[in-house]
Amino acid sequence: xxLSQALNGVSDKAKEAKEFLVQLKNMIQQIQENGVExxxxxxxxxxxxxxxxxxxxxxxxxxxxxEKEYKLKVVRDQITHxxxxxxxxxxxxxxxxxxxxxxxxxxxxxxxxxxxxxVTSSQDQWVKGALExxxxxxxxxxxxxxxxxxxxxxxxxxxxxGESTVVRQLTTTSM
Length: 175
Known about the structure:
Layout: H1 2-101, H2 105-125, H3 146-153
Helix pairs in contact: 1-2
């Protein structure tokens, strides 16, 4: 009787073990399916982050291009203006030198006051700062990627304590 009871107990445990083995074998299939699904989710999330970064990079490059174009326009305008002013000044200087070479003192006296006023006016037009660039060659733009890089390096999975399954999310801090 005792042996029969013991055998029944062992038999029940054997049945439980067979059922457990079936569960484990089914779990292998589930793990493989869930693994593929999880990998796809991970790839999709990382691709989404990369796409967002690529879009932001394009926006930043547009800003740099606009700043560069602005600086080039300012410098080209300044070159044009300075070149025109220099031509006027050079032409006036050449004319004055020819007048100074003139042998007729009375003719010189007739136009000297007007030339002096014109030369003085021309000199006044070269105001302080006229021969300084309006923009510098450097860009006053700084991209701080430190916190983003730190966040990327800390990117990991969340797992609830005491839970038997991994939470299917990537830890992302707002960027």
